[in-house]
Design a protein that fits this description.
heterodimer; A: about 250 residues; alpha/beta; Rossmann fold; 9-stranded mixed β-sheet; two-stranded antiparallel sheet; 6 helices; about 25% helix; globular; B: about 300 residues; 2 domains; 7-stranded parallel β-sheet; 5-stranded parallel β-sheet; 8 helices; elongated; Electron transfer flavoprotein subunit alpha (chain B); ETF_asu_C (chain B); electron transport (chain B)
Chain lengths: ~250, ~300
């Protein structure tokens, strides 16, 4: 079995809102780049499947060449090789078409895992587009995966709980974070070994862009001014003040 | 513009989409997913019992082409995210997810970078697919019911084996006027019981940050944030929550945030109306005691 995990390198998503700046409608270039928030959950899920079913695991990404050193962390977590399509489009359709091209080149892929959404554009649509382009079944918000004969048995998180689903054939699954797929920190030996693992860089293909115009990107103002209540001496008094203020404004 | 809503039969979710549909048409059509009567008045209604997104995409695409729908509306949900992107490829249609505002002239807004920025997009081609973030549009009051015809499923790709509903006692998180939420600063799963005590006294619900859910201290259905529940309570108590932008994106419409955190530099204080720099274990029991005395 050959598993592909999609990983995207994004600008630091932990930058607080108050310090966030844009240049050319995108996050300022000074922010350090890091692996996407949910991508690490997807990689951990892929590594667990690899360990359980003796599968092979390839990391596939679309991004700039400078991302390779960050993507090596994904390889260190348990990937065997990295395939990077070099490109800088933000269009989901173009990104999906390029990921398809990279997966087609691998030829024998059975399962594609992806974080439920990237930590920059936050769209959560590239993996679903990719599935349709590949002709694979797409299931979002997956928390657990098991192989059951020639089928996949998955637990999908929903707004009200979860669903147990079963599908045959090839699939793209978007992975949500659960305690079971919190990423393990790679050991030092794996980090060094990752530096020697193969990296395929592929030139991007021209895809059809989605017919939509980005008109404007701006940073919304946060207008809340925090009133700090005393917290050193008399907590009973602080509690009374807080409840009284909330009642004054008919909030409780 | 011919508008089609595709949504589970759930009055609040449907009501929000009906409100959005009024930006595009007088009365939308609907594909209602699930069983039961379809609340509200729709020009034409179809119903499909299969609730698995992957099974619906092909037949929805055919319906949209045959009927000439121009705008497709779904909630940003597990169902919506399972349908929207594959459908966009099938129809060569643009898709905008997590829409939070509709402007005139087919311009829609959505957040990016964990809610730290907002982008506006002009839709240039129809049909266009929009998934709507919950709690940003007032739910329309749905009167009466609409009769439907069956939408048959021709391609069953995925089998639903079982559904498990996480039962929460009291008010659902999405509807609560008061939410008491805990983050990694709560320390253990057991400590969440004190949050429940406070929530019970305020007739509220208990939420959690992604960190607390990842630790296994709270259920995924309790997660508040960009990738959890979007909530709009009158008061949101954030206890031991640092205030990552992804969490703040889920409480953007809270009227008042009360932050209690030991770290005075915590980002949550920048969103809070009232702040208490303290260990929650010192203030919450006193709040509970005060509320009990006042009862």
């Amino acid at each position: 079995m050959h598993i592909v995990v999609l990983a995207k390198v994004v600008p630091d998503y932990e930058v607080p809102a108050g310090d966030f700046e844009l240049t050319n409608s995108r996050a300022h270039a000074r922010y350090k780049r890091m692996m996407g928030l949910y991508d690490e959950n997807a990689i951990e899920s892929g590594v667990q499947l690899k360990e359980k079913y003796s599968s092979s695991l390839t990391i596939v990404s679309y991004g700039i060449k400078g991302d390779i050193q960050i993507l090596r962390k994904a390889v260190a977590m348990g990937g065997e090789k990295l395939s990077l399509v070099v490109g800088n489009s933000d269009d989901p359709h173009i990104i999906a078409a390029n990921l398809k091209m990279a997966i087609d080149k691998l030829e024998d892929v059975d399962l594609v895992l992806a974080g439920q959404q990237s930590a920059d554009m936050d769209r959560g649509i590239v993996h679903g587009m990719l599935a349709e382009m590949l002709g694979f079944t797409f299931i979002p918000q997956v928390a657990k995966i098991e192989q059951d004969g020639d089928q996949w048995k998955v637990i999908q998180n929903t707004e009200s709980g979860s669903s147990e689903l079963k599908c045959g054939g090839k699939a793209v699954l978007s992975i949500t974070s659960v305690p079971e797929n919190v990423p393990r920190i790679p050991v030092v030996r794996s980090i060094f070994a990752a530096k020697k693992k193969p990296v395929d860089t592929l030139s991007e293909i021209e895809g059809d862009a989605m017919l939509i115009d980005e008109v404007l990107v701006n940073i919304p103002k946060m207008e809340s001014v925090c009133e700090f209540l005393p917290a050193e001496d008399d907590m009973a008094e602080t509690a009374k003040i807080l409840l009284s203020k909330l009642r004054e404004e008919r909030l409780i | 513009m011919r508008t089609l809503i595709v949504e589970m039969i759930e009055p609040k979710r449907l009501g929000e989409l009906v409100t959005v549909s009024r930006e595009f048409c007088e009365q939308p059509d609907i594909v209602a997913v699930g069983t039961g009567q379809i609340p509200g008045s729709f020009a034409k209604a179809y119903q499909v019992e299969d609730t698995v997104a992957a099974n619906l995409v092909s037949d929805l695409a055919s319906l949209i082409v045959n009927e000439g729908y121009e705008v497709i509306l779904l909630t940003a949900s597990t169902l919506g995210s399972g349908i929207a992107a594959p459908l966009s490829v099938k129809l060569s249609a643009p898709v905008v997810s997590e829409v939070i505002r509709i402007q005139p002239d087919l311009v829609v807004e959505r957040p990016l970078y964990g809610g730290k920025a907002v982008a506006s997009y002009k839709l240039n081609k129809m049909p266009a697919i929009l998934t709507i973030r919950r709690k940003y549009f007032e739910a329309a009051d749905l009167q009466g019911f609409t009769d439907s015809s069956l939408l048959s499923i021709t391609e069953k790709k995925v089998e639903l084996i079982a559904e498990k509903e996480e039962k929460t006692e009291g008010i659902p998180l999405e509807d609560a006027e008061v939410i008491v939420s805990g983050g990694r600063g709560i320390g253990t799963a057991e400590n969440f019981s004190i949050l429940q005590d406070l929530a019970d006294l305020l007739n509220g619900a208990v939420g959690a940050s992604r960190g607390a859910v990842d630790e296994g201290w709270a259920q995924p259905t309790q997660q508040v944030g960009q990738t959890g529940k979007i909530v709009a309570p009158s008061v949101y108590f954030a206890l031991g929550i640092s205030g990552a932008s992804q969490h703040l994106a889920g409480i953007a419409n809270a009227k008042c945030v009360v932050a209690i955190n030991k770290d005075e530099e915590a980002n949550i204080f920048k969103r809070a109306r009232f702040g208490i720099v303290s260990d929650y274990k010192k203030i919450v029991p006193v709040l509970i005691e005060t509320l009990k005395e006042e009862a």
